[in-house]
Amino acid sequence: MTAKYGLDLGLEGQEKRNVCLAGEIKDLAQDERLMKATDQQFEIFLGKLLRTGVVIAALIVLAGGVWFLSEAHGARREYKTFRGVPAELSNLHGIFHGAVGGQALAVIQLGILVLIATPVARVLFSMLGFGLERDWMYVGVTAIVLVLLLYSLFNHSTR
Amino acid sequence: MNTVEFTLVVAIGSFFAGMLGSLTGLGGGVVIVPLLTLVFGVDIRYAIGASLVSVIATSSGAAAAYLREGYSNMRVGMFLEVATTVGALSGAFIAGYVSTSAIAIIFGVVLLYSAYTSFGGPKEPEKGLAPDPVATFLRLDGDFPADRIGGDAADTGGGSRARESYHVRNVPAGFGLMYLAGLLSGLLGIGSGAVKVLAMDQAMKIPFKVSTTTSNFMIGVTAAASAGIYLRRGYIDPGLALPVMLGVLAGALTGALILPGAKVKTLRMVFGVVIAALGVQMILEGVRGKL
Description:
The complex is a heterodimer. Chain A is an all-alpha fold. Chain A contains 4 helices and no strands. Helices cover about 80% and strands about 0% of the residues of chain A. Chain A is elongated and about 60 Å long. The radius of gyration of chain B is 19 Å and the shape is globular. In chain B, helix 1 packs antiparallel against helix 2 and helix 1 runs parallel beside helix 10. Chain B has a two-stranded antiparallel ribbon.
């Protein structure tokens, strides 16, 4: 009787442990699924960010382009020999000034700047995303990429 | 041709380049530079600037669709972006010192290689490989939505499907090849999809769908790294970037829309022949010193 009782208890304990273990495994799986889900939600957010950037850039370029073409009289710009784009259309300061001052070509360049900034924004948000996951190794990796991009955009000695 | 006519003609050419590029998966950038230089007589430096802008636009525009499917691997992408951005900066830097003839010849060789890959078609890497210690340390291994038997068209996304896991291999070799891909991208103003596939599929053994979507995701960042330098050097001309960027973007969107009904294999063959012919032409013109 007692032996049977003991066996019963043992079984119960084992079962309990099993249930407990299963529960933990289930919790872990749920955690992983949750992380996968947030990962994927974040990826969808990044995708939307990129698309929004491209749409805004394309609209600015289109607006500047229509304006540029409506004013385009006389001789066509010549691309056969390379002279380089004038300085006021090839640095950030000049482009902003020109666009505010109502120059059609500067407005197109502003749209291109928005386009170039779009992947940079994606890298910045990826870094925040890795930070939220407390993945410091990848916060570091992403920071390296970000620094390289900003160096390319803002270092005026690289010509 | 006056300005309006020139803009329209270049926009139409760019539209077809973007459409073919997205239908074949080879990217529009690879034909924009030969189109502008060989057909429209544009200096190769202006052509590279305009092509770079269109590469950023198509990569970022397509990413939204790819990311939703849950194939891409963010850690692989970000880790390899260190190599491609350093490569892109070096490429843009040396482009200032290399003659345009040399750039044309290198471009021609890359075109011939792209044509070759479009005929062979990438081989799916072998499955069930052992984990690699470097990849494990960098947490590069991942999984992706497995193919569904019967192929349900109305899929809500990768999250609800069974996922197939994979191990990433040969990280140093892949990293080195990615530096080369970035270098070519920075030097030639292209996305270097063919070299990226070589690095991720063949060296790192990443499944085809994962490598394609992850590489598309990376192309925009790589191109943005050299675009800053090209903008300051005066390579990015607004009058030329206008029809190229908008034309390629519209073409790529159209390509994505008609893709389900397209005969991709035939298209890849046709595009391969076109690219090979352009490659030979670029090399010839480069040797003659005409570009």
